[in-house]
Amino acid sequence: MAHPRKNAPAKEVSDFEERVVSVNRCSKVVKGGRNFSFSALVVVGNKKGLVGVGLGKANEVADAIRKGGEIAKKNLMQVPMNNQTIPHEIKSKFGAAKVFMKPAGPGTGMIAGGGVRAVLELAGIRDVLTKSLGSTNPVNIVRATFEAFKNMITKDEYIAKRS
To answer: From 3.40.1160.10, 3.30.230.10, 3.40.605.10, 3.30.1330.10, which CATH number describes the 79-154 domain?
Structure first.
């Protein structure tokens, strides 16, 4: 019978869901041929307003995804929500990627594509209209979505700011 390891990591029980948005292969030409490495863009969220993004890089796809998930869990942020939508209309830019988000009435659903959809679903937002303009780079689109969340304010914050 094998002895259990003394310092075995405790099995992590979390309500976070991971979603891989994109995986990129990068090659480096060396004396013996080509060396390939991978980068994975991973979004994690609990569908209750907490969401994070991470870009993991490694020589294997599985390692890159694992690293991306770990980085994303360290970079969690609270998303301002108004029931199941966003509090107000917002435009955001990161690099050449532009993201436009607009709140929608109940039952509208999520009109979003690619990276924006992954972030909004894992944040728990259900009714929203979005459009991504400019760059189609998934990393920049996801980062632009996070910039939009950072610049969003709730109704209570707005009222407090005015008085």
So the answer is: 3.30.230.10
Half-sphere exposure of 62 (CA within 13 A, CB side): 0
Q: Specify the pLDDT at position 162.
A: 86
Average pLDDT in the chain: 89
Residue 127 has, within 13 A of its CA and on its CB side, a CA count of 12
**Closest residue by Cα to residue 47 from 14, 69, 21, 20:** 14
Alpha-carbon gap, residue 116 to 113, rounded angstroms: 6
Residue 11: predicted pLDDT: 46
Residue type, 70: E
Contact 75, 47 (CB under 8 A): no
Residue 72: predicted pLDDT: 94
Residue 47 CA to residue 84 CA, distance in Å, equals 10
Backbone angles phi, psi at 98, to 5 degrees: -120, 140
